[in-house]
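G-protein coupled receptors family 1 profile domain-containing protein
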Amino acid sequence: PPETFQIRTKKKHENHFSTVSSATPPSSNTSTTPNITSFDCRIAANDITSRANYVYSLFASLGFVAGCFLLYSFVQTYRAQRRLTWLNFLLWAFCGFHLLLLLLSLHAVAYRPAYLQTSGLGCAALSFFINTVSLCSLLLLVLMAYTLTLDPPSHMLLRKPAVCVALVILTSVLVCLLLAGLRGPNDGLQKEGPCFMDPVSSGVSYAAARLCLVFLIPYILQLGLLICGCVRQCKSKGRFLSGSEEGPMFLTVTSAVFFCQLFYSVALLRGAELQSANLSYHKQAFLSVAEFVLFSGSSVSLLLVLLMHRPCRENLRGAFRQLRDCCRRPGRTQPHRNIIAPHIEITDTLQDIES
């Protein structure tokens, strides 16, 4: 009959509607799932940055202590000899610049995984000083390579400390002013916001310019000087790097700084290329880790100079020896150690001397 047919079709439509409504999830769950996922990614990225911050803090502490001891050692050497050799003067300036770079890195240690909140002008000034100090240390490595490979005479203009320091600082300031112009303030000079040392928002041009000016050119000069010195020593049948004991130390230090600078420069260039698509939390954490790697090069360099430079290493041993002697108990006996104090007695009189 027609009435039973209408009842059956109505039940079919109700069953179909119930199955469809049960298959589709509620709208509130679909909107909260992406938010939970991004929140978890942000926590994981901050955890990576925090752990890198802890590791770098340990390296920075060791490097700071090593740098202070190196400066103390060079001051003691100057007071004892009233002069510093040309290579020791370059090492003293190199350690001073890296110690200053460690102090400038405190802005990252104090605020990570967040960033320093400052004006655009203050952030640009911080970036300028960090790049200037970093470039000064690399140019000093170029002068060390020039001294060790070609052994210039002492009357040359570059062997004068005042001329050398002025040339290095002036060159670094001019190059970093060019980089500061390419970098520019992000959102105005007075507007406050998170401070990035080398922001990826400055574009690929800034990252490529920094890669060439602050990294590639100093190391190309070093490589050219090393090749020239090697050819010169082969022709004269002499030892490489003028037979100096500072040669292995120089090669080790410049290699460590090379890998740290390369890692940071490549990471910055890669981040600038990916800036068109918004960077994920993990990629931002990777840039923070790369920044810590850059500053770790200063700590590693200071530790290598302390352990490989013979006068500084001997001063370190002497300091440990004095510390050990001070820590000994005053009543402790020292067997097999007989100290005989010399006793000088003058018996001649004035009449004997005149006669």
